[in-house]
Amino acid sequence: MYLTDLTQEIYTAVTVNKSRSSLTVLGIVIGIASVIVMVAIGQGAQTAIQQNIQAIGSNLLIVRPGSQQGPGSPVQGAQGSAQSLTTADVTHLKKIPAVEAVAVEAQARSRQVTAAGKNTNTSVTGVTSEYPTVRNVKLAEGSFLTETHERSLAKVAVLGPDVVTELFDGVSSIGKKVRIGSVDFTVIGVTAARGGTGFGSSDDVIYIPVSTAQQFLIGNKYLSNINVQIRTGEDMTAAAENVKAALLEAHGIAPDETADFSILNQADIVATASSVTSTFTTLLGAVAGISLVVGGIGIMNMMLTSVTERTREIGLRKAIGARGREIRLQFLAEAIVLTFFGGFFGIFWGFVIASVMNRYGIAAEISTNSIILAFLVSAAIGIVFGYYPASRAARLNPIEALRYE
């Protein structure tokens, strides 16, 4: 059979009943579009989570007070309430060659803040001047805290944009007063919006000097976190071991004893989040793949019906010399063409749906791999679900086929 004859046969078979062909293709369109959209949602979520984690800083180690608990470990103190880190530890950490910068945090937790007759509850954090560099905080206006502010116990504050919106209706707050608890602070800066980071909103916060926070709000000299930025190119695992060794020595704890702090490696957090979201993406793709199987069954059902309706035609062609493999090729090609068109329109609608989702704030990221996968799957469906009807047509006895009513 020549290619032109085969093309003409396929065109006639597909267009002779347009409604049935369209409904058959619709199943593949829905299946392919579902796979593309589900995978795009998973990849979009993975990218958003990674960006949010990277937004808190780069090459970061976060040292937290309290021992790291593992399965079967005795309880030695709740994370966050333990008191084992002080500003004196910073001096030891800065001596490590791999350390680029160190920034501390002293959480005063949620406090009632009032200004201009309005009030709000927000997180108040005592930090040092290195904090913007280490935690990737940008300023929208004004200036950040300095070492002078820290040494002099200055009552100055840098507001997050959400706090400015709550207390000052978004109008510039530089130079104005805010009362945190019973202490008045002068606003010297406002941070740029960063959005959620997966660890609470970074915009609903007030930064004040760490010494001021410890003296007037917290009432002790302990820290909530120490953020250690490692130089680019350094081995983060080795750097974490050096940080651990330095703190163990500073705290007078032998290496074989339980440390009174724990270290979170940002690279490990990113890897864990990526692993979880990859599993999530695979699960979504697998669920959407079920609709592809249903669409494939629709293709097979339509082809079996077509073979039955064209039994006499098949018998006549065989009677005048057509071979079985030519009959098989014709019906298999019809199935592949139907799934090809289904895959094409499925990819088109997948793009459209993903674009609409992005426009309404739902992260959906279409990759080249997902498009290639969609094409391969649609071709595979055409072959797998079209082979049985094609083989059935090829095996028909020409005499019995001609007698078929």
Secondary-structure blueprint:
Layout: H1 3-15, H2 18-55, E1 60-65, H3 88-94, E2 99-115, E3 118-127, H4 131-134, E4 139-142, H5 147-151, E5 156-159, H6 161-168, E6 177-180, E7 183-191, E8 205-209, H7 210-218, E9 225-230, H8 236-251, E10 261-265, H9 266-309, H10 311-319, H11 324-359, H12 368-394, H13 398-403
Parallel strand pairs: 3-8, 5-7
Antiparallel strand pairs: 1-9, 1-10, 2-3, 2-6, 2-9, 4-7, 5-8, 6-7
Helix pairs in contact: 1-11, 2-9, 2-11, 2-12, 9-11, 9-12, 11-12
Helix content: 40-55%
Tally of separate helices: 13
Sheet with the most strands: spatial strand order? 2-3-8-5-7-6
Structural class: alpha+beta
Task: Characterize the largest beta sheet: strand count, sense, and whether it forms a barrel.
Answer: 6 strands, mixed, barrel
Q: Summarize the helix and strand pattern as letters.
A: HHEHEEHEHEHEEEHEHEHHHHH
Report on the structure:
- It is a single chain.
- The protein has a six-stranded mixed barrel with strand order 2-3-8-5-7-6.
- It is α+β, with helices and mostly antiparallel strands.
- Residues 70-79 have low confidence and may be disordered.
- Helices cover 55% and strands 17% of the residues.
- The chain has 13 helices and ten strands.
- It is elongated, with a radius of gyration of 33 Å.
